[in-house]
Design brief:
With about 220 residues, the chain is mostly helical. The protein contains 14 helices and no strands. About 65% of the residues lie in helices and about 0% in strands. The protein is elongated.
Length: about 220
């Protein structure tokens, strides 16, 4: 396993200078910024991620104002009351993407979000307090407690929300395999724990957020 300095130098060589590299690196939200976001915005982002999965993002994004309207601004207290009959009626609404499984996910995830908020004060507070040193544990929580948030959906939702996380993109997985951290796409808890441990080591070495380490790691893959 290469150390962080090797990874950083690789990125600098790719972009020509440290300044050019730094300009490309993502910056996660602070705990205060995460906490300040209202629950309805998190539910909207969660739904957006679910609908983007497997579909062209531009198509989903273009229709999103209509989704905001039919789901009452994604107010979780309202959305959670949506009946099966209401969802069936939405299947006839040509303004939105009519995918029954994805539509059903919205009230189900609203319930999860409300449960979390009652325990932690808000969903944003919950995200803010979750330690990045166990970010795969947060993926697992969202996958189990939420709906249609398995696979890459949980980490990509977190990235959209600004919560610091790495994402197991094809390039990141290829780099992890090249460094003998895993032998294939990590899906088992054992492999995910090994990946988390590697990122924790790189974070200790660098003091940088997981999202930046993730991007730098992806840059080490030659195309």
């Amino acid at each position: 396993m290469q150390d962080f300095q090797w990874m950083l130098e690789y990125g600098i060589n790719r972009f020509g200078s440290l300044a050019a590299l730094e300009a490309r690196l993502p910056i996660p939200a602070t705990a205060a910024q995460l906490t300040a976001v209202s629950d309805d915005r998190y539910l909207s982002l969660m739904a957006l991620r679910v609908f983007r999965a497997g579909l062209r993002h531009s198509v989903v994004d273009a229709k999103w104002p209509n989704f905001e309207e039919v789901f009452w601004g994604f107010d979780p207290e309202k959305v959670v009351l949506m009946s099966a009959e209401h969802i069936e009626r939405l299947m006839q609404d040509t303004r939105i993407i009519r995918h029954l499984g994805k539509l059903k996910s919205v009230p189900r995830n609203a319930q999860m979000l409300l449960d979390v908020s009652r325990e932690h004060g808000s969903f944003g507070a919950f995200l803010a307090q979750w330690p990045e040193q166990d970010i795969v544990g947060l993926w697992r929580y969202l996958s189990k407690q939420g709906y249609q948030l398995g696979g890459l959906s949980a980490p990509r939702f977190l990235r959209m929300a600004g919560k610091d996380t790495f994402v197991l993109s094809n390039d990141v997985v290829a780099a992890l395999v090249a460094q003998d951290i895993v032998t294939k796409n990590p899906t088992s808890q054992r492999d995910l724990s090994a990946v988390q441990e590697a990122f924790n080591i790189w974070q200790t070495q660098s003091g940088r957020p997981l999202c930046q380490i993730s991007m730098l790691l992806a840059l080490t893959v030659n195309h």
